[in-house]
Amino acid sequence: MNKNNKIIDQFFRDGVSQGRRLLRELEPDYVSVDERDVSDLLTFVQKYATKLNYYDESNRINGDWSSFFGGDVEQMVAYINNPESFADEPSTQRQLAQPHLVLLFTFLQLLRYPQQQFKALTQRYLDFYYKEVLQLTTKEEVPDKIHGIFELAQGEEAHLINKGTLLSAGQDSQGVNINYATDEDIVVNQAQVASIKTLFVEKNYIGLEVV
């Protein structure tokens, strides 16, 4: 009788799939060149405006540009997302609708497009490296395979399922029907698997001193 408990550790253990082994940090969209949102950019503009000298009509320094972009950042973001939400606050709406602020808000909205391109920069570099430098090609699509279980209707002794018979597997996330086709003729009968057993052979290696 085998009393080696190590065998149990070898047979009964939780595995880790390839997908679970993938580190999130290695995915192309994990980090971007510019990850700032509108709130971050507005805060940056307000702080940067304090570093810029304002010159009056006499070409003399008269403070900075912070007063041009002052205000509550959360209010600005809310106005950018939905200007009509300030319809009941005419004074705040007039303040946020000033031409120089609207011009800034428009610029920040347009800035989202190059930011999206920045996010795709890593993937584009990987595509260039694998396809152009290494000259790797994409493998052809491989049909999905499943194992089907058939059960005879009551009173039936056997039934032939022809090759190419479609088996419905429901629908995918897009609502498209999923069908699988049998790859050979199958005769379903009353035969059943009575039991399944596993044989394990333990090898004990002995040295000359034991002999």
Summarize the structure in words.
It is a single chain. The chain has eight helices and six strands. The chain has helices spanning 6-11, 18-21, 38-49, 73-81, 90-96, 99-110, 112-119, 121-133; strands at residues 53-55, 61-64, 158-161, 166-171, 177-181, 186-189. Residues 6-12 have low confidence and may be disordered. The longest helix has 13 residues, at 121-133. A hairpin with a 5-residue loop joins strand 4 and strand 5 (177-181). The two termini are 22 Å apart. 34% of the residues lie in helices and 12% in strands. With 211 residues, the chain is α+β, with helices and mostly antiparallel strands. The protein has a two-stranded antiparallel sheet with strand order 1-2. Strands 3-6 form a two-stranded antiparallel ribbon. It has a two-stranded antiparallel sheet with strand order 4-5.
In short:
The chain has 211 residues and is of the alpha+beta class. The chain is built from 8 helices and 6 strands, in the order H-H-H-E-E-H-H-H-H-H-E-E-E-E. Strand 4 (166-171) and strand 5 form a beta hairpin.
Topology:
Layout: H1 6-11, H2 18-21, H3 38-49, E1 53-55, E2 61-64, H4 73-81, H5 90-96, H6 99-110, H7 112-119, H8 121-133, E3 158-161, E4 166-171, E5 177-181, E6 186-189
Antiparallel strand pairs: 1-2, 3-6, 4-5
Helix pairs in contact: 3-4
